[in-house]
Specification:
Shape of chain A: globular
Number of helices of chain A: 16
Low-confidence stretches of chain A: 1-6
Largest sheet of chain B: 6 strands, parallel
Strand content of chain B: 15-25%
Number of strands of chain A: 0
Structural class of chain A: mainly alpha
Radius of gyration of chain B: 21 Å
Helix content of chain A: over 70%
Mean pLDDT of chain A: 89
CATH superfamily of the largest domain in chain B: Response regulator
Number of domains of chain B: 2
Structural class of chain B: alpha/beta
Distance between the termini of chain A: 23 Å
Oligomer: heterodimer
Strand content of chain A: under 5%
Distance between the termini of chain B: 51 Å
Number of strands of chain B: 12
Number of helices of chain B: 11
Largest sheet of chain A: none
CATH architecture of the largest domain in chain B: 3-Layer(aba) Sandwich
Strand order of the largest sheet of chain B: 2-1-3-4-5-11
Mean pLDDT of chain B: 88
Chain lengths: 370, 328
């Protein structure tokens, strides 16, 4: 997919103009759907945008959702660079949550926060990585296709978690399968709480310190892939496995390495969800973020900055979408999913629809470059 | 700014349409993940709210949760937009509700299927095991093979409560009765997977069951369909589902979520709403089995007499149905 098509564009146009055109097309089509149900599309659009960015609180929610997408988007993208399609982000995040949760439940009362948080990060990474390593091993040494095995591992993760939550970790005597609450030291401070301690007023939102960690991970991702030997080896295997072997790189070793990193990144979703928002282990906290991560990586062109922007887009769609269904009763949650689906369709699957035309336009505008 | 003008707009709109000032009474419902048209649990709540709307002409706000974090957000948004009677559907909203109810002390909250111990929260829980006991009896009496089935959604305590009551009911009629149990899945998709429900039902029919009780939300639609396809019987849940496949639905274990929602709205409007815990069982008509023109031919007079006798005995305490939640 990295091979340049015949009608290639300048790099900045590839990154800015093309996604913008795709996004515009998706929104126009969504607008037509809104018209079809008898609502005003411009009003719907303005609710969507103000719902996502209109005030400090909605921005907080948007960034909170975006945090999850950064983690899962990076997880999918890094595996993509090695030519591996990791569909198992959902399961890896779930099991990562088990690691984070167990660490917080057992050590939360014992360790102070500055030690507890790194321990929880390590636990989440270790559990997520371990869960991803099994399909990686099967791919590397047994030839079982990673797409199939990672999908299957999502279901196994869900079964394991349901069993543990219902039978082992549930706080006794209640309907809802939830664990005990974490100790205060084992929670991530919300950004509005941190602002308060500096005397600043900020709207209440679930945005927490995991957001900062997500940005750090994105920065690390970029440096790791483009500035280290491992990153080079990963990209080499992804670009041409035969050549990589000839260069002395072991694809099997890289498969395991990259999947472990991928699983660890996915596992960080639990930091945002469990330590940042729910303060306990709950069922289904992953809520599809692992799958949306695939679209995020696709739209973000597997680049750190692109993934951050795509995450922001999806965060805005999630937050703005829920405001939309709240303010316009005729816009049901199914319709919000339709709008999100159109964005994925145009930005991800049909990314090259407008490429030829835009390239043509560019050639006409800049004859010297052609 | 934009939100303020929006609020002003909606206030203006309300002032034109209804004589009741919105500051006095403003209602909202937050549905759970299944969605309000799940033909079952959430839909029952929807019918209750709609009945209130029809009778009083007062409309209500609503929100359907699609993400875990939205439970908190949905409840909070309703409270902030001035709703002072908010109903949370489903046990999963208990934890977020506890948080939001503490922040919005002036608002009144009613939660269905869970207990939240706060002065401004009314908790409504049902004795599903009692209703399930009766439909378990009905299943065992209608069964010719002595084998009956149970299909749940997710393997969570609430569904085990349904299953345990059902098994006890079946064994009460026929101690040798065999009860097959299957859960549909391990993710919330299990509440809305009619295809899988149909497959599980078919496999239970193949193993000899001839009556299957579905306690799985929208998944039950597939179980009912499979009963019709195989000329066997199914039992519906939460709402009265007898009409969905007439002649093939033995009865439905109805859970009067609609009544609970309606009563909460009504009492709040009349300023008679009170916090605390309401437990609705057979005695309070909170649960029961449905009889209508669609299943008249399936429940014989003899069966009905036995069911009514058992109902009276449970209310009188002569039959003890084990509550899975209390057992723990």
């Amino acid at each position: 997919m990295s091979a340049a098509p015949p009608s290639s564009l300048p790099r900045w146009a590839d990154v800015v103009v093309l996604p913008a055109a795709n996004l515009l097309a998706a929104f126009i089509l969504s607008g037509l759907v809104v018209v079809a149900i008898g609502e005003n599309p411009f009003q719907a659009m303005s609710i969507l945008v103000t719902g996502a960015f209109g005030n400090a609180e909605s921005i907080g929610y948007t960034l909170y959702y975006a945090t999850n997408f950064v983690f899962t988007g990076l997880a999918v993208a890094i595996a993509f660079h090695a030519g591996l399609f990791n569909i198992g982000g959902e399961g890896q995040a779930y099991i990562g949550g088990l690691g984070v949760g167990l660490a917080c439940l057992w050590l939360g009362g014992l360790l102070p926060a500055p030690i507890m948080v790194p321990v929880a990060i390590l636990a989440g990474a270790a559990f997520g990585a371990a869960w991803a390593t099994v399909p990686a091993y099967l791919q590397a040494y047994r030839g079982s296709h990673i797409v199939i095995t990672t999908i299957m591992f999502n279901f196994i993760a869900a079964s394991v978690m349901t069993y543990l939550m219902v039978n082992v970790l549930i706080k006794p005597g209640q309907q809802s399968p939830e664990s005990h609450e974490f100790a205060a030291a084992a929670t991530l401070p919300r950004l509005h709480e941190m602002a308060e301690s500096f005397g600043l007023e900020m709207a209440t939102s679930p945005l927490n310190l995991a957001f900062v960690w997500a940005l750090l991970c994105a920065g690390w991702y970029h440096l790791f892939l483009w500035r280290t030997r491992w990153g080079y080896e990963i990209r080499a295997v992804g670009a041409n496995e035969t050549a990589a072997i000839y260069a002395g790189i072991s694809p099997a070793r890289i498969t395991i390495l990259v999947m472990a990193i991928s699983g660890a990144l996915a596992g960080f979703v639990a930091l945002n969800e469990l330590m940042g928002v729910h303060y306990r282990i709950i069922l289904n906290f992953t809520g599809g973020y692992g799958f949306v991560g695939i679209a995020v990586a696709l739209i973000g062109r597997n680049r750190a900055l692109g993934i951050c922007l795509a995450s922001l887009l999806f965060g805005a769609l999630y937050q703005g979408g829920s405001e939309l269904s709240l303010d316009m009763p005729t816009v049901t949650r199914e319709l919000v999913v339709v709008i999100q689906g159109l964005v994925i369709l145009f930005c991800g699957a049909l990314e090259n629809v407008f490429r030829g035309r835009i390239a043509q336009l560019f050639r006409r505008l800049t004859p010297a470059a052609a | 700014m934009i939100r303020a003008s929006f609020a002003a707009l909606s206030l203006a709109a309300l002032a034109f349409t209804t004589p009741v000032s919105p500051a006095e009474f403003s209602a909202a419902v937050v549905f759970d993940m299944g969605g309000k048209f799940d033909k079952s649990f959430n839909e029952a709540a929807y019918h209750g709210a709609e009945r209130f709307k029809k009778e009083t002409g007062i409309s209500y706000r609503e929100f359907e949760v699609t993400q875990e974090a939205q439970r908190d957000q949905g409840l909070r948004n309703m409270a902030r937009r001035g709703a002072n009677m908010i109903i949370a559907i489903g046990f999963a909203q208990a934890t977020p509700l506890e948080k939001v109810a503490k922040e919005y002390k002036h608002a009144r909250f009613t939660i269905i299927d869970a207990v939240v111990d706060l002065p401004n929260v009314q908790s409504v829980v049902f004795k599903e095991h009692e209703g399930s006991f009766l439909v378990g009896m009905a299943a065992a009496m209608a069964s010719k093979t002595g084998k009956v089935g149970f299909i749940g959604g997710m393997d969570i305590p609430l569904i085990r409560k349904f299953a345990l009551g059902y098994v006890e009911g079946a064994k009460y009629v026929n101690p040798a009765a065999e009860v097959f149990q299957n859960m549909t899945g391990t993710t919330p998709a299990a509440w809305n997977d009619p295809t899988k429900g149909g497959e599980l039902a078919r496999s239970q029919f193949d193993r000899g069951a001839d009556v299957i009780y579905a306690a799985a939300g929208g998944t039950g639609i597939g179980v009912l369909q499979a009963a019709k396809d195989n000329k066997k019987l199914a039992i519906g849940v939460d709402s009265n589902q007898n009409h969905l496949q007439p002649g093939f639905v033995l009865t439905s274990m109805i859970k009067r979520v609609d009544v609970a929602v309606y009563e909460a709205f009504k009492s709040a409007k009349d300023n008679k709403w009170k916090g605390g815990v309401k437990v609705l069982g057979l005695k309070e008509d909170g649960v029961g089995y449905s009889m209508d023109e669609h299943n008249k031919a399936l429940i014989t007079a003899d069966m009905k007499a036995k069911l009514d006798a058992a109902r009276a005995d449970i209310i009188a305490g002569k039959i003890k149905v084990t509550d899975y939640m209390a057992k723990k």
